[in-house]
What we know:
Blueprint: H1 36-47, E1 56-60, H2 67-81, E2 85-90, H3 96-115, E3 133-134, H4 154-167, E4 172-177, H5 184-200, E5 205-211, H6 226-230, E6 232-235, H7 241-254, E7 258-259, H8 261-271, H9 275-289, E8 295-296, H10 298-322, H11 326-338, H12 347-354, H13 361-371, E9 374-376, E10 382-384, H14 389-399
Parallel strand pairs: 1-5, 1-6, 2-3, 2-4, 4-5, 7-8
Antiparallel strand pairs: 9-10
Helix pairs in contact: 3-4, 4-5, 7-8, 7-9, 8-9, 8-10, 9-10, 11-12, 11-14
Adenosine-5'-triphosphate binds near residues 22, 26 and 32.
Amino acid sequence: MAEDRPRYFSDQSDIGEAPPFTPGFGSTPPCLVGRDELIRKVCKMLDGDPASEGGTNILLAPRGMGKTVLLNEIEGAAQKERGWLVLAVAGTDGDPIAETHKAVVQARHAMAQTHGTPARRQVSGVSLGVGAVSAGVSFEQAPGLRRTSYGDDLRRDLGELASSATRVGTRVLLTMDEMHAVPLAKARQLGSYIQHIAKRERQALVFLGAALPYITATLLADRKSTFLQRLAVHKVDPLSNSEVRRGLREPILTHGGLIDDDAVDTASSAVAGHPYMLQLVGDKMWRAAGGPGKTITVNHAKRAVAEADESLQDHLFAPTWHGLSDTDKQFLAALAVLAESQESPRVAAVCEGAAIGKSSASAYRRRLLLSGMVSPGGRGRLKLAHPAIGPWLRRSLTSGSLRVPQRDNTR
Ligand SMILES: Nc1ncnc2c1ncn2[C@@H]1O[C@H](COP(=O)(O)OP(=O)(O)OP(=O)(O)O)[C@@H](O)[C@H]1O
Ligand SMILES: [Mg+2]
């Protein structure tokens, strides 16, 4: 999924022609709601001493909650407002060490062009003004780069880049999206380089990752890497109802449309705090009504919700389901059956329904919470994280389009 998603920095300059909604992963919406405080908080930490705990951070949230958009916003703020050098890498891009190294080599080249080579440069306190450097850019486009292999000298080259940045009064922000996909050995290696450069050499290098929450049970639980253990974790929460209402209404009004109050009610309750669903429903309502000058009615909203539910199933629920272990699938299927008659079934009843031992209940509960498919439902209870999950799962299991494996020997 992540491979097809473009990473880019939000550019508000062409907002006039941009559509009101952006139902695509990694697409920054014209109206980004409910994230100002988190952006401020993370930027403040990155602004602090790179050697302190706040120098290395990670954003955690289930799929579609807005991690990539947040990374883009923070990268944009670092680059445009602070003049920092931004290296953006994704954990799904192949070897993350080699990809980071490519970004470093390219950044050093860009920096040398702006400020001269490190030996000659006399500039200080000047904003770098170079674009953010993405590891995805082809190297043939940058003349003068003759490297053929990447990875081996990353610590040295990243250290030198950070040291050059420190000397001109700026800093390097390294970001890594989809960090849950990075193999443990690579994460340890990268972490040890970052720690060495920021803490031991005291150079201006800061880090921001983004990952699915299950990383807390994998990479972040690693006892050998203090870098991974000490990452400052920022949870990206669902949007509040008033944020959702603003996120639906504002772009419609600014793009010359109108929306009835009961249409906002219908749409916002279906969105249930989920940013991707917000964009899907908004986009489909906008199209159903006919765009600028038209009024979105409750009927448009109902139709949009039905269509958006389908997209959510294909793009969010199904991929998450396929990533679950056999027992997690059994557990989730049992929860979906019970959830038809009660909003928050007891964990014990779910175990019984799935015919799995209660002794491991807390492990299933934890893994499914991390998957983003369920949320806590009060003492000893669980509920499905989105109102569309239950009907979709029950329908898919009945029709046979999804299957619950009968035995699990994997976990
Ligand atoms: N704060 C927000 N307000 C409105 N829409 C948002 C907000 N954050 C994200 N979106 C929208 O939600 C969708 C998902 O965003 P994004 O791709 O950043 O999620 P993600 O957490 O990175 O997902 P994944 O884990 O699948 O990569 C996009 O369509 C984006 O425009
Ligand atoms: Mg993402």
